[in-house]
Design a protein that fits this description.
single chain; 439 residues; alpha/beta; D-Maltodextrin-Binding Protein, domain 2; 7-stranded mixed sheet; 18 helices; 14% strand; globular; disordered N terminus; Sugar ABC transporter substrate-binding protein; signal; SBP; palmitate
């Protein structure tokens, strides 16, 4: 059944608001709990390195038995892949399976590109933390993908330098701010960390932890609340630290940032579970000197984290073998052998909770060999992932963040004004695209 963007969005909004099960019903013909035994030849678009080796396990094992063969087609990631998927879907030629970042799912669903596979993967739900599974349902009874990898956020710090300067690992954001100030008084040439505007996912994850819900629905319309109270709190907090000079204001992933980490000029980093890989390259001389702790909380009674990154495996509405594709997606992200291969070949941190402390995750990352319980602690933190609320134009919000917050950080100007700009640009773009927006 064809949908205009307006018609599709209204259906989406009503489904989210009412918890209905029909969000993508018109795009899916897989049937409730339908099984499929092949022969079926499926195509999978993914950017994950080494995925072809993981898929070989399927083709030689369960896939061979069920006569379901999967072929990997390597793709670019991010907005480039989303655009390619939508272009292919418009021509009715999207692949059977796609790797999709969680924040891209609403865009793909609102364009009727993803099938509801709830009838085929419902049993997988118990393998994931609630906050992770929720990202693939968009708050409905439908399921648009199976979680693959996640990026629970945590706090990284130079254990040796915290001891040298007499600092205590902060458990609240107020303590974090005081730690930054204390370090500046003790060692003026040092910074606790930096506020960076060149990766929107960091700010989104921090806002998520604070309770932000940037996109929700109201009746048959979207509601955009990027400037909600939770996000304003986050913006004010970091903007205040930058303005007073308690932390640095330089972007991440630059040679200067790498040097600051490697030489101990910056002694902490708010990041995610994938940080060891980045630190290995950025600060090779400090291997074994870092430790990881839970993200500071806004109050002592809270225990939750945000998510920075992560993706899922989705089945498209163009697939003629949706049940078979869903079966593969569930296997890929819940089977122990598949998860071990994903960790080994692709270096991912699995969304499936049972895989987070087994196989490749029995030992800490080599860079954190001094912290034997690294992955045990990471798994505990992952369980506290707060729910997300993504919308159909995350790319616009992220682009505005980089521009507006980038200028505010550089000039040490008002982060609140930058947040307002982010809100206004996102709403304007949605209206321009024909989405109904309530305020």
């Amino acid at each position: 059944m064809p949908y205009t963007k307006r018609r599709r969005l209204v259906t989406t909004a009503v489904a989210v608001a009412l918890g209905a099960t029909t969000l993508a019903a018109c795009g899916s013909d897989s049937g409730e709990g339908e099984t499929e035994s092949g022969p079926a030849s499926l195509t999978y678009w993914t950017w994950t390195p080494g995925m072809d080796k993981v898929v070989d396990l399927w083709n030689k094992g369960p896939g061979k038995k069920d006569r379901i063969t999967v072929t990997v087609k390597k793709q670019a990631s991010g907005d480039t892949l989303v655009t390619k998927i939508l272009t292919a879907h418009k021509a009715g030629k999207a692949p059977d399976l796609v790797q999709a970042e969680y924040q891209a799912l609403p865009t793909l669903v609102s364009n009727d590109a993803l099938a509801d596979i709830s009838g085929n993967v419902g049993e997988a739900k118990g393998r994931f933390a609630d906050g992770v599974w929720q990202q693939t349902t968009l708050g409905t009874d439908a399921v648009y993908a199976v979680p693959q990898d996640i990026g629970p956020m945590m706090f990284y710090y130079r254990e040796d330098l915290f001891k040298k300067y007499g600092l205590t690992v902060p458990t609240t954001w107020d303590e974090f701010a005081e730690t930054a100030r204390e370090l500046k008084k003790t060692a003026p040439d040092k910074d606790l960390t930096t506020f960076s505007a060149n990766d929107s996912g960091l700010f989104a994850g921090l806002s998520q932890q604070a309770g932000a819900k940037w996109w929700t629905t109201s009746g048959d319309q979207w509601k955009v609340s990027i400037d909600d109270a939770a996000t304003q709190k986050v913006a004010k907090f970091w903007g205040g630290l930058v303005k007073e000079g308690a932390i640095d204001n330089q972007p991440m992933y630059t040679p200067a940032w790498n040097k600051a980490l490697n030489t101990g000029r910056q002694i902490a980093w708010v990041s995610a579970v994938w940080a060891p890989g980045t630190l290995t390259t950025a600060a090779p001389d400090t291997k074994g000197k870092w430790a990881m702790a839970p993200l500071p909380q806004w109050s002592t009674s809270e225990n939750r984290t945000g998510s920075w990154g992560g993706s899922s495996t989705a089945v498209t509405t163009d697939s003629k073998h949706q049940a078979a594709a869903a079966k593969f997606a569930a296997w890929l992200n819940t089977d122990r052998e598949a998860l071990n291969a994903l960790a080994k070949e692709s270096g991912i941190y699995p969304a499936a909770t049972n895989a987070q402390t087994s196989g490749a995750f029995l030992k800490p990352p080599a860079y954190f060999s001094n912290q034997a319980d690294f992955y045990t602690k990471a798994a505990d933190i992952a369980e506290t992932t707060a729910p997300s609320a993504w919308g159909p134009n995350v790319n616009v919000a992220y682009t505005t963040f980089k521009d507006a917050f980038g200028a505010a950080a550089k000039n040490k100007s008002d982060f609140g004004a930058a947040l307002n700009k982010m809100q206004d640009d996102t709403v304007a773009d949605m209206k321009k695209q024909g989405f109904g927006v309530a305020r």
